[in-house]
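Quick entry between incubations.
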Amino acid sequence: MKTIIEPFRIKAVEPIRMTGREEREAILERAGFNVFLIDANDVLIDLLTDSGTGAMSSEQWAGVMRGDESYAGAKSFHRFYDRVQEMTGFSHILPTHQGRASERILFQVTAGPGMVVPNNNHFDTTRANVEHSGAKPLDLVIDEGQVANSRHPFKGNMNLERLERLFEDVGAERIPLVMLTVTNNSGGGQPVSLENIRAVREICDRHGTPLFLDACRFAENAYFIKEREPGQSNRSVPEIVREMFELSDGATISAKKDGLVNIGGVLLFRDADLAQRARNLLILTEGFPTYGGLAGRDLEAMAQGFTEVLEEDYLHYRIRSVGYLGERLTAGGVQIVEPPGGHAIYIDAAAFCPHIPRDRLPGQAVVCALYRHAGIRAVEIGTLMFGGEGNRPEMELVRLAIPRRVYTQSHIDYVVEAVLDVFDQRDALRPLEIVDAPAQLRHFTARLREVGS
Ligand code: F0G
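Done. Structure below.
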């Protein structure tokens, strides 16, 4: 059979409230043309993020009922710990409430003023946490990773020459760790190859510097390695995942992605000393090290999620359904970041509406049009998110992030039709300007207005 079906049946449903175009027009205006300020109840298809928005399985919900809520040493912690240890090989395993809590603790115990943290591409909270420590984040993704229509199979790879040069220029003592984001969210959900992780490991070894993974989407990355990397197709996904983690000295994980849960995070260390310092900080702000700011039931759901996410039927469906959206948009003439990423499709907004200059936020114009036309909520990843204070992101993107196990193919077909309709009428898209915004992470709360073109 050529048709790929969702490998699950639906046991509980959540109604979608239908809205009309006029109603959405008023909602958009009230929200200052910022979709973060729109209520979820006013959204038909919510592609704002794949983070914490997935559907849990019946086994995960069963785990929720099994949750042991003891303060210390709960059974649920041990189930979580055993699962993460089996999957990653790490023995210093700290639960946290989400990815950015892991990041804050990691950079507080490793980084500081005068230091530089290289990554393929820092995610926005990772960047902010590096900066919060006083260190400077640096993005060193390969050149192909910054070109929307390049079809390099591992566009998330680190540029090894630039990494090597950085060590020569600033010296290893000022680089507390090297980070690799798998998959590379800010660069289009693109994977990093095993070969690249091994090469970064080798550079780190030569300089005595630890390598950490930002491993939010480790399973999707491993599936791409199995599909695309020479010599990997006969290995199992859990084997590849294990090798990715074994090549690193630690990791931050937002379990809201490939943990298949609505809340949760993990922080992993090889080094016992660092782990102990992190544990002390964890107690200060998150909770005792056997619950880390979560309920016992959340740890149960995570343990089960980390099992289900490695099932190849699930990953095949996941990567194919995102790929399907990408292929339909490409066939309709829309330039996306190619090839399709693991968790999202990224529309090249600069190519979509070339009549809107970058400082007039072409990506946000597309985001507003999708909401107006079809009630779809996407997110701009471009000048609104990363611009300001002299920063200029490489690309103007609009991300359609696909929640895990939530939408069916007809929902995705609706999204395809909406994007292609907006593309047909792209000349009518209006430029935007910022009316009011905070200095940091401005896209979350900024208010905007449409201006004459
Ligand atoms: N690292 C990456 C690569 C991420 O994509 C995210 C979150 C985080 C770290 C932080 O994790 O949200 O649990 O604190 N990304 C979400 C997104 C928010 O929409 O891409 P968190």
